[in-house]
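Box 3.1 A note on notation
Throughout this textbook, protein chains are presented in two layers. The first layer is the amino acid sequence; the second is a token string describing backbone geometry. Keep the layers aligned when reading.
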Amino acid sequence: MVYNSAAELCEGFGYPPVHVKLTIEIIDKRLGPVKAEAEIAIKPVKAKGYLEVLVEELESEHIFADENGSIYGSFGIDQSIQIYDEVLTTIPFEEIMGNENWKETVEESITADKLREQLGKSLNDYQFSDLSGKYKFRKRCKITELQFID
């Protein structure tokens, strides 16, 4: 199907969500690899004139690391990584409208390499809370494995 207008695109657009499994390395000697699953959706935003490629939901297994007691030490962690409704990238309507190969355009934005890069940025911006919930902090993260789930 070829979309010829923004209205037609917003009304009729349908692309199934993409599910991925991740292995995340959090740069912290107290932690091993962390497993997570994410659902990536592609949705039109008529007011902005583009398709959003977004993380509808990303949840990791539970992460626990005790505080190490020193005033210079690391904060404790007792939580899962949870990211919801975060935009990874956008695709302008102009690239979709009138294009018979629009699926290829969409699929170029959700390749394993692109998702690894974009989800990596989201994970590095993620704010953990300490055990008291009083302090927020970031941890450097790296996606070591990404697999598509059918």
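The first helix runs from residue 6 to 12. The chain has a mean pLDDT of 92.
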